[in-house]
Specification:
The protein is built from 9 helices and 16 strands. By secondary structure, the protein is an alpha/beta fold. The radius of gyration is 19 Å and the shape is globular.
């Protein structure tokens, strides 16, 4: 039976409900922003924790004077970080990031609260999906001006590797040996340790500087899919339903809720699978499969950022979920 397990101890504003065998965490605004206590897992099970849920610009977004952001700039509990996961193995005391965002500082601090490391940086690797700013710009913190890291492994596809190695300021991280780029190959498993592995899955996207991948994360008991960016489901030569069937939880591109969300802009020029489209596409899946889907990577205009919005209710009524910062999934 698939099971979402919350292994952090947040004492306020937590609602837990059972649906088709999955434990779903629903956090209100206050709870999402509470400091996390150190995690104690009796079984030392490895897990994934969500450190960010928004599109590259975060929330609220710079320069936005519309109601979606304007009212929230001075309300820290409303802020949301750029999309990022951490993979943690308490038994080996290892930690990996999936994405390195402009909120790297805050997300590394959050990770230190969740799973403290004796090492100043304490990262066994960083996996990058692609070269859009929200997914790699945080690497700059590893340079000599900030952390002065020593050969942190950064895993990327070939074009992404070349982009980092040949364009400043990222190339300075390579020459100064702050990072050591490890090349990925589509659908080739990378073994993290004896009980964890990760596999890149090449997907169609606006690949100006690099390829784009999602990641399948495999643990000793469960697996997860992280796919924050893709053009449209029908442009991928793999059926997303088959990938969902093969994992226990799937964090999927939920950038926009529906067409028309950006008035005055042709949204076909920035293709993503609208959440409304995904809901329709997945409608015939069994409840247990729909329950795996957790939308993520929300644009600042996405009404799902309001947990009380009709859009959020529509996701829930369809048997899906919206990702929340700090939610955990045991692998």
């Amino acid at each position: 039976m698939n099971q979402m397990r919350v292994i952090n101890a947040i004492s306020q504003g937590v609602l837990i409900s059972f649906a088709t065998g999955v434990l779903v965490l629903a956090l209100n605004d206050h709870a999402i922003c509470q400091p996390l206590k150190k995690i104690a897992s009796t079984q030392n099970a490895p897990y994934v924790v969500v450190l960010g849920i928004t599109q590259d610009g975060g929330y609220p977004q710079a320069g936005c004077r519309k109601e979606c952001c304007r009212l929230h700039f001075n309300i820290p509990k409303k802020h949301r970080h750029v999309v990022c996961l951490a993979i943690v193995d308490p038994a080996s005391h290892q930690r990996w990031l999936v994405e390195c965002t402009p909120h790297f500082r805050e997300q590394l601090h959050r990770l230190d609260q969740i799973a403290p490391s004796s090492d100043r940086i304490g990262l066994d690797g960083i996996f990058l999906t692609h070269a859009h700013i929200g997914h790699y710009a945080g690497l700059i913190h590893l340079g000599r001006e900030v952390m002065g890291a020593d050969r942190v492994p950064v895993y990327s596809m070939p074009r992404m590797k070349r982009f980092l190695a040949t364009n400043g300021p990222w190339s300075q991280l390579v020459t100064a040996k702050n990072i050591a780029i490890q090349e990925l190959e589509d659908n080739r498993v990378v073994k993290l340790n004896e009980r964890l592995s990760i596999t890149p899955l090449l997907v169609p996207h606006r690949d100006e500087y690099s390829e784009t991948v999602g990641f399948r994360i495999q643990g000793p008991r469960r697996s997860a899919l992280f796919l924050p960016d893709i053009d449209k489901w029908d442009r991928w030569d793999t059926k997303i339903e088959d990938v969902i069937r093969d994992v226990d939880v799937a964090w999927l591109d939920g950038t926009f809720f529906a067409d028309g969300e950006l008035p005055g802009r042709d949204m076909s020029k920035i293709p993503h699978p609208f959440i409304a489209e995904s809901i329709g596409r997945f409608a015939d899946l069994p409840a247990s499969e729909r329950n795996k889907v957790r939308f993520i990577h929300f644009n600042h205009t996405n009404p799902v950022l309001d947990p009380r919005s009709p859009a959020t209710k529509r996701i829930q009524n369809a048997g899906h979920h919206s990702a929340a910062e700090s939610e955990h999934f045991e692998l």
